Amino acid sequence: GNLGSMETRQWLCELPPKKENVHIVKGDIDDDNSDSLERKVLQIGNFKIGIIHGHQLVPWDDQEALSCIQREMDCDLLICGHTHKNRLTNFDGKYFLNPGSATGAYSALSAEPIPS
Of 57, 71, 89, 101, which is the most buried if we count CB atoms within 10 A? Predict the structure, then answer.
């Protein structure tokens, strides 16, 4: 999420190996006309991977809120960002991955954001 433009989305989808391997969810600053979903679940082998941007959580990055979304999406791993803090946690037998920020983008939760 938070790609900011259709041009960025198109650029990501053109990266090898195939655009079918690019999975995007809508972020809080993405265009409302985007065809991206708020949530997405992928099945890879025996694992279900849920993807959300994270602005939907109240409070942000809260483990109980993440766990609630994980149960709603019925996934083994939930990938969720928004805070721009990279982290991997295990809670109640499920995994939660925040990939952080590739660019060190601004975060309301940190005075000094750094790339992940």
Answer: 101
